[in-house]
Automatic annotation (TrEMBL):
CDD domains: NmrA_like_SDR_a (cd05251)
InterPro entries: NAD(P)-bd_dom_sf, NmrA-like, NmrA-like_oxidored
Name under which the protein is recorded: NmrA-like family domain-containing protein 1
Highest taxon listed in the record's lineage: Eukaryota
Pfam families linked to this entry: NmrA (PF05368)
Keywords: NADP
One GO cellular component, as annotated: nucleus
Length: 313
């Protein structure tokens, strides 16, 4: 019998990867793709690919119950609403989590998978609302006794084509302005997250009521710059590790909303390894096992060097 899986964020990076992986095995899975707008082009593309479209809002508990009823598993990703005050957005996101918990309890959902982030404030004392809120949601699910697999995710490779891309300093020369010094940090090839989720669904008993971390590489910012150079210099572009500090980051982006939260995130990367709670965040063996098609960062840059070069232009 097919397993019915309700997938939130089905048009995004995480949920989209899950949908693709499940649709590769149509005899094993029936996908309910959650959307706020079932007539959008992305939603219609999901229907054409074989998904059942279901409409719901995380802010409305009553809309969540029908889409979870009869499901074997739910894959949940939450995003805070866009607000200037990050603390307010985080409170709303936490409410979304409580709404999902209430709906899961109402229908007796057998398995909930939730992608979360570390509680930076708990580990370092420096709050990161968009990270800490997800950690608190996971704790709330546990308090309510939900059958949970909490999946902690690190930075995405794919972000190096956008928000983390090197910044131009002169023609064909770019600075990687990430203030993490010599501290290595974990990364994930998020396009293949669905492989891990599919495995976890079919091996539920191994992962129920477990916290896991999925990562596929672990590098310093200097190593990231070196990898980029290996593939970009033959194309006439040079990437340098700018060796940015936290103070330089704060000063350069002082007019950007949420900059202090970003600085605190980097504080977590720098200070986190001193805390025992951080240990599992360094693991890449499980990610590579559950995501066999995922690439190393070097392989991914090699395959996407043209896209990176275009993003830098």
């Amino acid at each position: 019998m097919k397993k019915v899986v309700t997938v939130f964020g089905a048009t995004g990076q995480q949920g989209g990867s899950v949908v693709r992986a499940l649709l590769e095995q149509p005899d094993n899975f029936h996908v309910r793709a959650v959307t706020r707008n079932p007539t959008s082009p992305k939603s219609l593309a999901l229907r054409a690919a074989g998904c059942q479209l279901v409409q719901a809002e995380l802010a409305q508990t009553e809309s969540l119950i029908p889409i979870l009823q009869g499901a074997d598993c739910c894959f949940l990703v939450t995003r805070p609403p866009v607000k200037m005050v990050q603390e307010e957005a985080a409170k709303d996101e936490y409410q979304y989590g409580m709404n999902v918990a209430n709906a899961c309890m109402a229908v007796g959902l057998p398995h909930l998978m939730f992608t979360t982030l570390p509680n930076c404030e708990k580990i370092t004392g420096a709050a990161v609302p968009w990270s800490d809120s997800k950690a608190r949601i996971a704790e709330y699910f546990k308090e309510k006794g939900l059958p949970l697999t909490a999946i902690t995710l690190p930075d995405f490779y794919e972000n190096y084509l956008s928000v983390l891309k090197p910044q131009k300093v002169e023609d064909d020369v770019y600075n990687l302005e990430i203030p993490t010094g010599e501290q290595a940090y974990s990364l994930i090839n998020i396009s293949y997250l669905g492989e891990a989720v599919r495995h976890i669904i079919t091996h539920r008993d191994e992962y129920i009521n477990k916290d896991i971390t999925l990562a596929t590489d672990r590098l310093t910012v200097g190593e990231i710059a070196d990898i980029m150079n290996t593939h970009l210099q033959p194309m006439g572009k040079t990437v340098r590790n700018a060796e940015f500090t936290l103070d330089q980051t704060r000063e350069k982006y002082k007019h950007r909303a949420g900059i202090e939260d970003l600085v605190n995130w980097y504080k977590f990367i720098l200070a986190g390894p001193a805390d025992p709670q951080y240990e599992e965040y360094k693991d890449i063996e499980l990610g590579r096992k559950l995501m066999p098609s995922a690439k190393s960062f070097d392989e991914w840059i090699r395959e996407n060097k043209e896209a990176l070069a275009a993003a830098l232009s």
